[in-house]
Write a structure and sequence with these properties.
alpha/beta; about 45% helix; Rossmann fold; binds guanine; 10 helices; about 280 residues; globular
């Protein structure tokens, strides 16, 4: 039976460490880091995520701003708000919650955020820097996943890691982070034939597809570290991951629960990225 990777506990430790640094940062730089979160429209899941991000910022003792815009907001209006925030020296991090309404080009919006305030690490310059090994904002979920793996004490170097899902937000960056730690990485996806033949080789298995039961217990190598990035809402309102927990936890050595695994870590890493942007702006000033 697998040990549970407690994302809530690991994220709480990260947030507490940041919280402890706030008085020193304020004394040294005259103010605390400030995160601005923007949400457009009424997507219920996005509203919950955004609320949790602002709550975490408050817990850590950072300044935060929440801008809630109506669904009908135009792309031009959103771009103009971002330009204002880019120019605002009191704001260190700008995050636009995705997905955006269909009439807004998300990529254009992401590229409009100043690269040095891109706490999500989604800007093409941050994504490119990650791939060529330059300093950058690393996307929060992949960064959190690496911390969760490290929290198990299982080494990454030399291991076979299989990532299922090739999104820009999770799959691609987490594959690069695992590669940087000298894992041998397979990046599998919805068109991978015989997925099981790959997953059975995985010492580390990261599943980020957005569909229930993509991985079942018979697909898990005994003793593997299984990271479930899925957040699927069932008809009864409950949350479930991409991995069938009941069977996978019989085979795995370590496994993340949903909820309480990757989700809280994403938010803790966002706090860390905001502090890093704040500090980078002060060091380079
Ligand atoms: N939507 C789902 N995940 C994320 C994330 O990490 N950042 C943003 N901005 N939107 C998201």
């Amino acid at each position: 039976m697998a040990k549970i990777i407690d994302g809530k506990a690991v994220s709480a430790a990260v947030k507490d460490a940041l919280k402890a640094r706030m008085p020193e940062l304020e004394a040294r730089y005259g103010r605390r880091p400030c995160l601005c979160v923007i949400i457009v429209g009424e997507n219920p899941a996005s509203k919950v995520y955004v609320r949790n991000k602002v709550r975490a910022a408050q817990y850590v003792g950072m300044e935060s701003r929440l801008v809630e815009l109506p669904e009908r907001t135009s792309e031009a209006e959103l771009l103009s708000l971002i330009a204002e925030l880019n120019a605002d020296s009191g704001v260190d991090g700008v995050l636009v919650q995705l997905p955006l309404p269909r009439h807004i080009d998300a990529q254009k919006v992401i590229e409009a955020i100043a690269v040095e305030k891109d706490v999500d690490g989604f800007h093409v310059l941050n994504a490119g820097s990650l791939w060529v090994g330059r300093p950058c904002s690393v996307p929060c979920t992949p960064k959190g996943i690496l911390r969760l793996i490290d929290s198990t004490g299982v080494g990454i170097e030399g291991k076979t890691a299989v990532v299922i899902g090739r999104s820009n937000i999770v799959g691609k960056p987490v594959a690069k982070l695992l590669l940087d730690r000298n894992a041998t990485v397979v990046l599998a996806h919805s068109r991978t034939p015989d997925l099981k033949s790959f997953t059975l080789q995985a010492d580390i298995l990261v599943v980020a597809v957005g569909k229930e039961r993509v991985v079942t217990g018979d697909m898990v190598k005994p003793g593997a570290v299984v990271i479930d990035v899925g957040m699927n809402r069932r008809a009864d309102g409950s949350l479930t991951g991409d991995v069938e927990f009941e069977t996978a936890s019989q085979a795995a050595g370590w496994i993340t629960p949903v909820p309480g695994g990757v989700g809280p870590m994403t938010i803790a890493m966002l706090m860390e990225n905001t502090v890093d942007c704040f500090l980078a702006a002060r060091v380079s000033a």
